[in-house]
Amino acid sequence: MANKGPAYGMSRDVQSKIEKKYDDELEDRLVEWIVAQCGAAVGRPERGRLGFQVWLKNGIVLSRLVNSLYPDGSKPVKIPDTPPTMVFKQMEQIAQFLKAAEDYAKDMAAVQRTLMALGSLAVTKNDGNYHGDPNWFMKKAQEHKREFTESQLKEGKNVIGLQMGSNKGASQAGMSYGRPRQIIS
């Protein structure tokens, strides 16, 4: 945001709406999860939208987070020895975490939603690589396959469901819509 000039008129209104979507309580929950997942070595950000953004900006914390969700030996993101300081290197690091980094880096509320989705998937996967309180995230719905016997399937063919409705006793007698047709000669 530092590379943009002041916002006026409609631009300022749009920016204000984006900033109102940012959730401080969600920030706290995400920081707790990232620290629990990655370890204390990732540090903690200063409180607030700007501190959270600076913490995630170079992509190292995000890379460590996504790597922590994989078993040893199959880490998808290469983490450099020194954190990148040049903007394009930071963007490359974030791009490894998320293909559309530019879109999300401008909208921290979208970054939060993305991290929430990642956390939910990690809890749902339940493969032993998730660390932290599983109650921080909602589990995604999973398949619940049902098996029916032949007799249960035959019984179902004899039932008329309520959604099929009924036309018993229905007619259009006495119904009129609008005026009758006028024939002019």
Would you kindly provide a brief summary of this structure?
It contains 8 helices and no strands. It is mainly alpha-helical and 185 residues long. Its main location: cytoplasm.
Helicity, as a percent range: 40-55%
Whole-number radius of gyration? Answer: 28 Å
Name the poorly predicted regions: 99-104
Largest sheet geometry = none
Oligomeric category: single chain
Average pLDDT: 81
Shape: flat
Our count of helices gives 8
Distance between the termini: 75 Å
At the fourth CATH level, what is the homologous superfamily of one domain? Calponin-like domain
The CATH first-level class of one domain comes to Mainly Alpha
Note down, in words, how this protein is organized.
About 50% of the residues lie in helices and about 0% in strands. The protein contains eight helices and no strands. The protein has helices at about 10-20, 25-40, 50-55, 60-70, 85-95, 100-105, 110-125, 150-155. Among the domains are: about 10-105, Calponin-like domain (Actin-binding Protein, T-fimbrin, domain 1, Orthogonal Bundle), CATH 1.10.418; about 110-140, no CATH class. The chain is flat. Helix 2 (about 25-40) crosses helix 7 and helix 4 packs parallel to helix 5 (about 85-95). It has about 180 residues and is an all-alpha fold. Its main location: cytoplasm. Pfam families: Calponin, CH. This is Transgelin. It comes from Aramus guarauna (Limpkin). Keywords: Acetylation, Cytoplasm, Muscle protein.
